[in-house]
Amino acid sequence: MTAIGCAGCLVAVAACLLAPAGARAQTAEGRMDVAFGARWVGAATLGSAEARLTTADGGTRVLFETHSELTPVRTIEAAVHIRVARFLRIGGSVSSGRSRMETRITADFEGAPDTVVSERVTEFAIGGVVAADLRPMAGARFRPFIAAGAGHLRHVHEGRPLVEIGRLYHVGGGADYVLRGRGGPALGVRVDLRAVLRSQGLFADGGLHASPAVAGSLFVRF
Amino acid sequence: MTPVPFRRTVAVVVLALVALATAPALAYLKLGFDFDGRRLSLRWTRVPVPYFVSQTSVPGVSPSDFQLAVDRAFSTWAEVPTSAVAFEPRGITFALPGEDDERSTLGFLARPDLDRVLASTSFLVDGVSGELIEADIFFNSVFPWSVHPGGEAGRYDLESVALHEIGHLSGLGHSALGETEFSAGGGRRVIAAGAVMFPIAFPAGSTADRTLRADDVAGISDLYPEPGFPDRTGSVSGHVTKDGRGVFGAHVAAFHLSTGALVGNFSLNEDGEFSIAGLAPGPHVLRVEPLDDVDVDGFFPADAPVTLDFRVTYPQRIVVVPRGGDSGVVEIEVVGK
């Protein structure tokens, strides 16, 4: 099992263990919320590579160089949060979005002009999150939070010839603003800002590749 | 005087008609021949392939030195994990390479008439069954040779040249992954090569061709695949066209953006069709260039309609190789120089 898988399990176990406490903590903050929204994740480098030929002395000459990146991803996202303590929520989310893998080719040995080649990529993500609510403001309608999570990533190439599996981690914060909350489920707006770290999938070097991400969503709190 | 550069060629000695084949549309440039109205690849149907070493020597290379060097070269091919090719040393023989004795024999021969040929591989094919019977390799003893582990200045590395010729003995044709320049004395000098099967040898003293590259590994694995190899790898295929017409003999190289592996092949018919098999799954960049770094006759029959007048071209899309399948047809339009 991957580290992401383990993180998902931990979140699930925590949900089970903390559910009774959550029940006791159920207040005006609600027991659970469901959110739908959109997220923008910034570009990330996929690394550079050299097409190398071998020289007589065992060294190399470069036939051409490549510099690849994943362009910003615009995703739609659904999330569920369950309150497990007065200031603590756990949850999960799924998202899907389109991007492009772009590769800039430079330094051709025979002087071919630099060029950019690309293909469309769809990114699917599923993951868990732990969010800690901070002190509410504006009469409890506005409540900032900090959050961290981990997830499983799938990059699907154009035409679905290949699916590459990766991981993502994120840390950040945001705020919930309740638009309507009296009598019945509360309706609100959530905005968050994250640093997203992605690994594997298209990020074949095994390292973590950081990108900023911002999201906005509507939530219904029960 | 050290004669550089030298071309290693594939001499073809057959009972049936054998030619450098433009081979099956899929996969690598393989040696082949026309038999009974069909185009067949030169390929051993039974492995391990037995071979004998001729009791010959040259200054600096004793018969046992020679045997050890060619054994190492055979082992290098046999150790490719994705290929099932195997060889079996049968010891020393007094026969010489080129004798039709149904024994694949490697040894030195003095061929001063072939003043640009370091070594050559010839084949004997059964004229009735079409089966490959024998493949001999001669090393031209008019050149200075070495088996020194680090190479020797002014002497050609026997193991490197043997590795190239054993690629031919196995059925592989030449690779065009390499860059050359014209030298002052005429001929071409290799600047760098991306395959042991590049047709022009490195200068004397170099041992750089003792190591197979991705292109060599893909080629031998395609010809003698280990079980499961076709399912674990994929291919790229498509057409190269110019002014709306297919281009024959365009060299297409596939570069894996993650692994850095560089594997090449040619468009092999007048529709400009090409296919490169044995590629690791993942995104690739393709590069297309004319066959202008080597002599065309090292790859194709002299009358092949090879097109050389076009520029190096990178198709505008990244090509994703699936696991156990093909990328789908990639259309590549090239333009004249």
- The neighbouring-strand order within the major sheet of chain A is 1-4-5-6-7-8-9-10
Low-confidence stretches of chain B: 1-28
In N-to-C order, the SSE pattern of chain B is EEEEEHEEEEEEHEEHHEEEEEEEE
Tell me the number of helical segments of chain B per DSSP (H or I, 4 or more residues long): 4
**Quaternary state of the chains:** heterodimer
What is the straight-line distance between the termini of chain A? 34 Å
Largest sheet of chain A: 8 strands, antiparallel, barrel
Mean pLDDT of chain B, to the nearest integer, reads 88
Assigned CATH architecture of the largest domain in chain B: 3-Layer(aba) Sandwich
Q: How large is the share of residues in beta strands of chain A?
A: over 45%
Indicate the overall shape of chain B: globular
CATH homologous superfamily caption of the largest domain in chain B: Collagenase (Catalytic Domain)
Brief overview, please?
The complex is a heterodimer of chains A (222) and B (337). Chain A has 222 residues and is mainly β. Chain A has one helix at residues 3-25; strands at residues 32-41, 44-54, 60-70, 73-85, 88-106, 115-133, 142-157, 163-180, 186-200, 209-221.
